[in-house]
Design a protein that fits this description.
Strand order of the largest sheet: 3-2-1-4-5-6-7-8
Low-confidence stretches: 1-6, 293-299
Largest sheet: 8 strands, mixed
CATH topology of the largest domain: Rossmann fold
Structural class: alpha/beta
Strand content: 5-15%
Number of domains: 2
CATH class of the largest domain: Alpha Beta
Number of helices: 12
CATH superfamily of the largest domain: NAD(P)-binding Rossmann-like Domain
Shape: globular
Number of strands: 8
Amino acid sequence: MAAGPGRRRPIVKVGVVGAGLMGAEIALVFALAGHEVLLHDASADALERAIGRLRGVLDKGVARKFYTAKAADAALGRIVPVVDLGALADCAMVTEAVYEALDVKGDVLRALDQLCRPDCILATNTSTLPVSTLASYLSPDRRGRFLGTHYFSPVSRMKLVEIIPGFATDAAVVDTVTALLQDLGKQAIVIKDVAGFAVNRMLHALLIEAVKLVEEGVATPADLDTACRLGLGHPIGPFAMMDVVTSDLCLKVQQILHDAYGERFRPPALLKQRVAAGLGGGKGRPGWIAANENQQERM
């Protein structure tokens, strides 16, 4: 049997809704651990692109650092792309990993509530939205089997997962998901259900202050990245990180945190300006570091 680290539980069929960067790699880590995975997206093109990205992850050998070569080679064959949400009806666990907006996630959860079997565990990969708020889109009988599982990007390399029980989540469900994540090679920590949870609150406090330092002319993005890597021991600097995850997403998260906690999480004006100017980073777009490098080349 192909297995991820520490496998003790039997193979189960799991579903992932959303074939973006996070959803596709969540599907991958389940497949690497031997599970059958249904990866859903409404767009067949998005599913095709997702499988192509995952093939690149495996070809680069990233996953092989944590999983056996046999598991990595077989993983893609265990991921079945589906455009019909109804295909997930008999899954033992379904993870929602769609756009970080309450109405979008709510629509997906409402649909899953109607079609999934009664004992199915539903999880949301939200990074900031309170899980108990999302649980309100589910029927009362379903809420005990619903919780947050916040993965970190890239999921194939980052070991941490925040588990966030809602007000009604059964303790046994938390235990089951914690054990399952351990079998995937992940380290789970249980976090109180508050906006932003724990890691994003710490991270965005850092990101906001880093952008303010640039606004004030204290240091350049490149120098602040160097300071965090060499002075704080971080594997990546705040501006390089924003270029990877996109400043657009960072702004979205900070707006949610600002609504929840007030002034301390107000997004900096410079971040808003750069996002509006199309300098959010990500694939094919200039970001903090790339934009600075391009500007220097033109001087």
